[in-house]
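User: Here's a structure from my thesis project, written as structure tokens. My advisor, Dr. K., wants to see whether a designed sequence matches the one we expressed. Can you design one independently, without my sequence as a hint?
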């Protein structure tokens, strides 16, 4: 079994001049490379000590589904790295003053010394109560006879929308998932979190929700990450197919319970220091330990580079649901009931996923200035109000760079070429086209089609627009 620990150079300043976008050659290469994602996974993690271009990250890490660790240059200017800590330790007084809201702020707390349904059980606690506990636990030297409590999955940006704790690094800004959840009126959820925990707190072995990407930045403290490339998780399952809860469990060495463990091939260990940011790709199982009192900021996200992985995972989850209740398949409304169970178990069903794809497509049509009805650019998009030169070739395709309609995070970026942004959105739309085409041939989706498309464009109409855009840029053949 391989076990790699990375060695990291130190020292670098972050030059804030990077932009989101990809070149034409990267667009072509990326579309081809996606079909080889699983084959490209390797048992190593690169340390990025100096800024790289967005395109380099896109082609070497997002598309190839490879992990990496960024140096402190991404976080050095964050407000949280100044106001939340002192001497690389949590500043309890500052956290209480800034966020306790007179004892009214409630946060989710996990007990790391208990197991319940393959997870740590959670309870609600006020932030003031948790900070008081943490100070006491810390002052006593993290004693084994006290509970080890971990504040995790705190929707901080939802709770304090006017406090700019951090800026999402440019490499992670193509985020369909949080854009979609923010647009929904039926939920107040998102996938942006703050974690705070004492030395010894930890997260059990898992892969991220919807098989999304994740990034995690240490505001203070140190973490140990143990990661496994996709496919290695089968060697970490017991004879009933259940994933081991804790990699430190001596039961893993019991051949009768974990007969495949001895065949494990790849395991990566990474020590993440203060200010560093780790990128965890789709489907990489991982377990995480806080080696010191630690505060981190974490996002889950999905985009055109990993949306196919997410869709395949959701389809597999539905197959598992159908297998579980196969004895009831003659009941009326069985397909709808399966969708209810799918949402309960995985957090999303086919109807939500179609809305997700529909929203992502319509946003990109809008940003490109594409109008399916008349195949012309939106009135708001012009050289006068974008301040950018638009080529005649793009005008002829009916696609413009509609800067006024870009999402806020892109507006905040330094000036970038219209062409590179167009390439990125064309890539996105080609990936959505691939998903929608697959959904239209999926019997389970066809069964519930009428419920899925209420208030939305029908998939056959949506696919016409996707085909129109992708074919104009000659990428439809690359999706085969």
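Assistant: Designed independently from the structure alone:
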């Amino acid at each position: 079994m391989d076990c790699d620990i990375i060695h990291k150079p130190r020292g670098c300043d972050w030059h804030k001049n990077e932009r989101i976008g990809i070149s034409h050659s990267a667009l072509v290469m990326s579309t081809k490379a996606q079909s080889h994602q699983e084959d490209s996974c390797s048992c190593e993690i690169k340390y990025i000590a100096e800024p790289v271009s967005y395109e380099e990250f896109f082609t070497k890490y997002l598309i190839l589904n490879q992990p990496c660790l960024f140096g402190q240059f991404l976080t050095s200017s964050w407000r949280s790295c100044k106001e939340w800590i002192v001497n690389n330790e949590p500043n309890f007084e500052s956290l209480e003053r800034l966020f306790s809201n007179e004892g009214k702020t409630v946060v989710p707390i996990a007990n790391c010394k208990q197991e319940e349904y393959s997870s740590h059980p959670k309870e609600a606690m006020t932030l003031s109560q948790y900070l008081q506990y943490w100070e006491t636990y810390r002052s006593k030297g993290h004693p084994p006879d006290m509970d080890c409590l971990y504040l995790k999955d705190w929707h901080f940006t939802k709770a304090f929308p006017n406090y700019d704790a951090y800026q999402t690094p440019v490499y992670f800004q193509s985020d369909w998932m949080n854009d979609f959840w923010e647009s929904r009126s039926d939920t107040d959820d998102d996938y942006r979190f703050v974690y705070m925990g004492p030395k010894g707190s930890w997260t059990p072995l898992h892969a991220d929700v919807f098989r999304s990407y994740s990034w995690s930045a240490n505001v203070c403290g140190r973490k140990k990450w143990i990661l496994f490339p996709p496919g290695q998780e089968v060697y970490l399952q017991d004879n009933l197919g259940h994933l081991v809860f804790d990699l430190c469990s001596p039961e893993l060495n019991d051949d009768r319970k974990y007969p495949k463990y001895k065949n494990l091939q790849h395991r990566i260990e990474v020590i993440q220091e203060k200010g560093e940011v780790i990128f965890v790709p789709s489907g990489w199982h991982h377990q995480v330990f806080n080696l010191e009192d630690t505060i981190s900021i974490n996002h889950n996200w999905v985009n055109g580079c990993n949306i196919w992985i997410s869709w395949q995972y959701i389809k597999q989850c539905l197959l598992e649901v159908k297998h579980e209740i196969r004895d009831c398949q003659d009941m009326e409304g069985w397909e709808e009931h399966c969708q209810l169970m799918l949402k309960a178990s995985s957090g999303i069903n086919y109807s939500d996923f179609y809305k997700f794809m529909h929203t992502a497509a319509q946003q990109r049509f809008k940003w490109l200035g594409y109008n399916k009805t008349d195949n012309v650019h939106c009135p708001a998009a012009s050289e006068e109000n974008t301040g950018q030169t638009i080529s005649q070739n793009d005008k002829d395709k009916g696609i413009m760079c509609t800067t006024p309609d870009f999402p806020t995070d892109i507006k905040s970026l330094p000036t970038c070429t219209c062409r590179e942004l167009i390439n990125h959105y064309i890539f996105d739309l080609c990936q959505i086209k691939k998903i929608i085409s697959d959904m239209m041939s999926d019997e389970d989706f066809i069964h519930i089609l009428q419920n899925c498309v209420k208030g939305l464009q029908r998939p056959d109409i949506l696919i016409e627009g996707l085909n129109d855009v992708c074919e104009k840029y000659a990428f439809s053949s690359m999706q085969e």
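When you compare it with your expressed construct, this may help: The first strand starts at residue 2 and ends at 5.
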